[in-house]
Amino acid sequence: MNKKILVTGATGFIGSSLVRRLASGDDQVFILVRKSSDLTPLSDVLPKVTLVYGDITDRASLDAALPGIDLVYHSAGLTYMGDKKNSLLFKINVDGTRNILQASLSAGVKRFVHVSSITAVGIAFDKKPVNESVVWNFESISLEYARTKHLSEVEVAEAIKKGLDCVIVNPAFVFGAGDINFNAGRIIKDIYNRRLPFYPLGGICVVDVEIVSQAIISAMERGKTGERYILGGENVSYKQLADTISRITGAPRVNFPLPFWIAKILKSGLDLYKNKNRISKLFNMSMFRVASHFLYFDSAKAIRELNMPYESHEHSITNAYEWYRERNML
Fold first, then answer.
1. How does 28-57 read in b/e, with b if 16+ C-beta sit within 10 Å?
2. CB atoms near residue 273 (< 10 Å)
3. Which of 114, 160, 255, 280 is the most buried (most CB within 10 A)?
4. Reduced to 3 states, what is the DSSP secondary structure of residue 312?
5. Which pLDDT tens digit goes with each residue over 103-125?
6. What are the chain's domains?
7. pTM to 2 decimal places
């Protein structure tokens, strides 16, 4: 029997990849969009989906959208690494998640997958990859985005207590085709254009968007209620990542390590520099503070329980670079 599926955040990088996969099946796919949403990322699948106008910050619009829906994929959220949008981060990531959870409970939704973030999991302070059982420790960095993603999972736990069947997934740093807003892909663009002359001393867990979207669907199909699943791949230092990007794109290598304490001094000097556009947008203190730590993760649980495949980080970087190059986006 065909199911009715609602996806939030459908125009985002992960959301659009997810919708594309879902639309290739037999289920009815509804996507929650605002009147102002840019539907360009979904232009190839729009005939196969049904638009539902609403907003996760508007509870009444959700109550109108959800009756009859069987499954909800909640991938909407604000990703912002800074401290200038704290109230908006909370409104969208925490209040918005609570709204969609409560509306799903009221509408009798059968299953709900919450797309969270690895910032809601924690930091590998000793470089040893952490798994789903780690106690959230991101507050030591004071990043409001991470705090709101953590609190969104607290909201999921509350909804489960009230009877909603929920599974959480925590994507790592997602690269790949379709990243039109240069989320993770910003580092590829900036190394390619020689706007990133230095690298931070931390590391990240890299995964391809196609692996993530497939694993999110697997989480809906076979994930255990109340469990969270880290969707990651290879753990690499920023030095390794920069070397890989240089090799794949043909850009000069990034040879200068930049400790966080020096970065702070350098940033205050650059703020006086008129030609700021020549330096990467990634060089803000919130982002650089995070990048000076090791966000290394163990994805064994998702590999074991969700049958998630594992690919090298070169695979994802190559996919993203070739997609950008074909569209002259670099």
1. bbbbbbeeebeeebbeebeeebeebebbbb
2. 9
3. 114
4. coil
5. 999 999 999 999 999 999 999 98
6. 4-174+207-232+300-310 (3.40.50.720)
7. 0.93
